[in-house]
Amino acid sequence: MAGKNIQEELKNLLTLLKKEKDADLQQYRKKMAGTSLKERRKKGVCWYPINLEKTKYDAGERLIVKISRPPEHTDAHLFQSGKLISLFSNSAGLGDHEDAVNGVVNSVTKAHMHITMNVDSLPDWLHHGQLGVQLLFDENAYREMERTLTTLLNTKEDRLTEMKKILLGDKSARFTDHATIRDLGLNDSQNAALHQIHNAQDVAIIHGPPGTGKTTTVVQAILETLKSESQVLVCAPSNAAVDLLAEKLGEQNIEVLRIGHPARVTEEILSKTLDAKVANHKDYKDLKALRKQADEYFAMAGKYKRNFGHAEKRQRNQLRDEAKSLKAQAEHLSYYIINDIIGKAQVIACTLVGANNQTLNGMTFETVFIDEAAQALEPASWVPILKSNRVIFAGDHCQLPPTIKSFEAARAGLEVTLFEKAIQCNQADTMLREQYRMHEDIMNFSSRLFYKDQLIANEMVKNWKVYNEDQTVEFIDTAGCGYFEEVDPETKSSFNTEEADLLFKHLTQYLSQLDAMDKSSDLTSVGIISPYKAQVIAMQEQLASMELDEVTANKIAVNTIDSFQGQERDVIYISLVRSNENGEIGFLSDTRRMNVALTRARKKLIVIGDSATIGQHPFYEKFLDYINEIDAYHSAFEWISE
Ligand SMILES: Nc1ncnc2c1ncn2[C@@H]1O[C@H](COP(=O)(O)OP(=O)(O)OP(=O)(O)O)[C@@H](O)[C@H]1O
């Protein structure tokens, strides 16, 4: 094990990270290319013109604006909650806007956007019209990751050097031998994970296949850790994952402090942010009064202008001194309030990169928990580890990997996560084995291909169905039907209209069958998934045109695989799309992504595809073997001939 060139590995990682940043910036510039606002609008990176509808202050006294775009502007856009934007005025008709203020998108719909501004009050020019918003390139995450890797490369600190060796495979992780930890609410493998975490001195890894209660286990492990440590750091790569954990910990009456921009957290978690906690602190009234008084004195001092004699000058200086002293008192009180809040928090929750937030400057933790660690870039994972003595990872490297923009960087190693490296280098992982989501026929293929056949279905779910005689898994083979894929010329994404038609024919029949049996209410949710965006859009349109009653329509969602990660539905349809004479399967060869798709269904899974095209790939060859084994094969001709 010894002798691995860790320094070279980290230097290479830093180079790959720079490549990734360049690729990201290039993609951003491509979208922004062309100075015309109309062109930018068409590319989805700008709304212009916009209307300033409302302004208000949130609980933490941050300025929020609501804007809208004209109803005829219906172009798809790339604005999302958490994105950094610039609100600008084009009154001078210039391409580059001198009058601009930045903010972060809170929430966005087709026509409206709420933005938390990075300024305290709105500049005057905002009221003169000709306003727009556009996306900005957010360099912050890259900056923090680069800084972290540089620190890691140059560190002389003993413990960090040791952690570097352990996590990258140059030294073995150590464990103590404390008595068995057992939580009566957990199953055997979950208890084994708790026990391992309890004994880990450097690293422990919870490997959580779909539906195996990873989140439940992480929450219990945090509760257990808090019995011996007064505070833990809890991180995840995305804001959504951090919020989910913060919510679950809150339900257990744990005092959680959520560090991060309020625009980036969900409504439910707002009360746990530092902004909100400061505003609710018992001493906040005093802080506000001090700040107000200081502002008033400063304003009064500024007013003494005419007949400016010696006495006035003295009075002005006195007011200024008084104002400065009040301001210093306010800062002191603010510092006290923030420290009080941090000190009382049992869990500090933030994104990986958010662990470098200045609020946490100089703080260290005994343990950091990193959830969804298999979706985190390695440089991001190191950010909170630099502040911690040991790390507990949770995730599943057999599901979605991190999103990487540079194909070259991904291939050269950026796609390998620290989670994966730590699993390979140490005997520190426990795989959760009992799953609580799927009928065992749905589970078994994934279990065989990804989890060494070790998953078991909990008694409650192993045989569940929408109705007793229902077939749990169906593969509908379109081979020989001539349902060829097409490519959207603009987006280059593939779609297959006839396959979508077949899918909806099956769904319509299934729904009427349930209706006829009076079982409609037993079906709570249906997910329709495709790896191809163009197919998703086409199917969303088809679903919208179906004129379903509201109750049924609300049960059905169509989306990409990525957006279904972490979710589950009673029934899942998967449209594989690819059908060509050369056996080209493109995106479908990403088997980890397919593992996510195949494990979203609770009670019924219907996969539609062309066996002649997909069957040439070993993964789908095995899938088709499995389909035959469980007698789940159907030909599309069964539906066509009707
Ligand atoms: N030991 C257990 N006993 C009974 N139910 C459990 C147990 N562990 C987890 N569950 C249930 O299993 C379901 C999935 O749990 P959880 O959300 O923790 O899973 P997960 O592995 O995080 O899911 P995902 O696949 O989305 O990552 C939940 O309904 C949870 O209550």
UniProtKB/TrEMBL annotation:
Its main location: cytoplasm. It is found in: Cytoplasm. Keywords: ATP-binding, Cytoplasm, Helicase, Hydrolase, Nucleotide-binding. Its EC number is 3.6.4.12. InterPro entries: AAA+_ATPase, Coronavir_polyprotein_1ab, DNA2/NAM7-like_C, DNA2/NAM7_AAA_11, P-loop_NTPase, SF1_C_Upf1, SMUBP-2_HCS1_1B. The keyword Cytoplasm applies. SMART domains: AAA. Residues 200-424 form the AAA+ ATPase domain. Pfam families: AAA_11, AAA_12, SMUBP-2_HCS1_1B. Belongs to the DNA2/NAM7 helicase family. This is DNA helicase. It comes from Reichenbachiella carrageenanivorans.
